[in-house]
Amino acid sequence: MAIIKTKGIIIKRVNLSEADKILTILTADRGKIRVVARGVRKPKAKLGGFLEMFRYNEYLLAEGRNLDLVAGAYTIDNLVSIGQSLRSVATAYYIAETVDKLIEETQEASKTFEIVYRSLKAISQSGDLDAIKGWFEINLLASLGFRPELNRCVECRAPLEEGWFSFELGGILDAQHRNSDLAALPVSAVELLELRAIGGNIPKQVSPKIAQIGAGFMEQIVDRNLKSKEFLAEVTSGFLE
Ligand SMILES: [Zn+2]
């Protein structure tokens, strides 16, 4: 039986039978994978403690009939301090769920892994949760090809120092074109600088506008992504009928 070694963070756990679980793991080298952890729900399970949510482990996987099986694991970073508050746990779950929705199982995900690990690490080190969430959103979307335009008006390409952020158009509008999206949010010069800087390191804190833009932009892309998945599912099932 072939054994493979990989490293990754547990982003989802689902009960399979009375004793087993299916784990979704985000790895740096194999993308998002789903594996079966046998017997892990029994009270004295050998691997139980290693397979908690958000654990960063190295795994030994054995080839299974459908999904691979966890044959062994040891922890690289337990990230247990994520459990320090309800809000930090909720932020970590938001990160895990968002990644699960946006990343396909066959997709290359080394950059995504890096963004997720840095975000979870910062949560476990008591960083500002709004800043971490905003950094995660802007950087994950940028890595998936949805980098917001923050330097020029998305309509006329005029350079900008302030303007209106459009979720729909994926960037900033100037006064002349702000009516292209009536839902666009006004962004001051200071806020725009803050938005541009968030592509780098996780900031110590962010203004409410940045948090609002990160969350709104993410919602828009996740929504679009889910709709296209539904559309694909409909088209495919149509072919099968
Ligand atoms: Zn313009």
From TrEMBL:
One BP annotation, GO: double-strand break repair
Swiss-Prot/TrEMBL keywords: DNA damage, DNA recombination, DNA repair
Full protein name: DNA repair protein RecO
GO cellular component: bacterial nucleoid
Protein family according to the UniProt entry: Belongs to the RecO family.
Function text: Involved in DNA repair and RecF pathway recombination.
InterPro entries per the UniProt record, alphabetical: ARFGAP/RecO (IPR037278), DNA_rep/recomb_RecO_N (IPR022572), NA-bd_OB-fold (IPR012340), RecO (IPR003717), RecO_C (IPR042242)
Alphabetized Gene3D superfamilies for the sequence: Nucleic acid-binding proteins, Recombination protein O, C-terminal domain
Positions of the DNA replication/recombination mediator RecO N-terminal domain: 1-77
Chain's gene name: recO
Organism: candidate division Kazan bacterium RBG_13_50_9
Domain of life: Bacteria
